[in-house]
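Lab notebook, bench 4. The sequencing result for the construct came back, and we need a structural model before the next group meeting so we can plan mutations. Quick request posted to the team channel:

Model the 3D structure of this chain.
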Amino acid sequence: MKIKPASSFKYNRPDEVAECWNGVTEAGLYGPLWNAMDDAKPLGELIDMEDSSPEDAIGLNSVASLWHKFTPEQQRKLNELAKRHKKEWDDL
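Done. Here's the predicted structure in token form:
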């Protein structure tokens, strides 16, 4: 069964999730998130693309766009993390 990324990963880069979200280290996802950045395109190069916005550039380097770099177990953990992250924001 293919695991789809949580919608919150559409505009969150792996490095942002690794550094800013609670529970990443405990879930064993810090290294995998940074490793996924190996396939990310340089942000400056993306922003210079004709007819693109910063949001387009971030989307091209999002966790969702790099989803294939994660194992199914990591994908499950990332989606659990996204649920907790959303709840934290909703509780503010």
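The chain has a mean pLDDT of 87.
Will bring this to the meeting.
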